[in-house]
Amino acid sequence: MANTTSAKKATRKIARRTIINKSRRTQMRGAVRSVEEAIAKGDREAALQAMTRAEPQLMRAAQRNIIHKNSASRKVSRLSHQIAKLAKLAKLAK
């Protein structure tokens, strides 16, 4: 347990930030999940729309140190690659 007043204040600040960060992480994960679901369905248009919402949230989370910058970039890259694959599959099906 914190003894000094500055340590007590620091724990209060950490508790407030934790609540905010959990909310942001939940929103980010939901945005990514919507992209993944659209990819799983094979709906490229829905995946592209969801990706336009998910990418800024991922990068914003990285800026705010909720996730690592490289982790966010890797996630964006992998999702973009999967969406591009959907386009190739659609061309092959025609």
Features:
3 helices; mainly alpha; 87% helix; 94 residues
Q: Which ranges are low-confidence, i.e. pLDDT below 50, for 5 or more consecutive residues?
A: none
The shape is elongated
| Discrete helix count | 3
Q: What is the first-to-last residue Cα distance? A: 66 Å
Series of H and E elements: HHH
The radius of gyration over CA amounts to 18 Å
Summarize this structure briefly:
By secondary structure, the protein is mainly alpha-helical.
Describe this structure in words.
The chain is mainly alpha-helical and 94 residues long. Helices cover 87% and strands 0% of the residues. It is built from three helices and no strands. It has helices at 5-41, 44-63, 69-93. Helix 2 (44-63) runs antiparallel to helix 3. The mean pLDDT is 94.
In terms of topology, how is this protein built?
Blueprint: H1 5-41, H2 44-63, H3 69-93
